[in-house]
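Problem 12. The chain below contains 124 residues. Write out its predicted structure in token notation.
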Amino acid sequence: QVQVEESGGGLVQAGDSVMLSCVVSGRRTFDKYAMGWFRQYPGKEREAVAWMTNYGGRTEYKDSVKGRFTISRDDAKNTVYLQMNDLGPEDTAIYFCGARFAIATMYADEYEHWGQGTQVTVSS
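Solution.
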């Protein structure tokens, strides 16, 4: 059984920074998982904001977060991070971490394991 747990969300002001963390536990070694961070607005589909191949390789970002968000991973800690800088009200959403035992992708329905999400609220 694979468990995914996000943390680090909260209420911040515009221009602030937040780091989200996601710990993955299970029978497969973490470094074999491609990881993605997604966000979901009320009534909308989950959208990818950043994703990363396994073994700490290539990263990709949604255009609107390039230069502000950074995805990284620490395989020794089974953890993937999302550093979010210069936040704006448009970044207010529930952020989810997804794990995939395959190549990284921006498509939420291709991820096998999800956490419960963490709310990030940015006040103007």
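Discussion. DSSP finds no helices and eleven strands in the chain. Students who got a different answer should revisit the alignment rule from Section 12.3.
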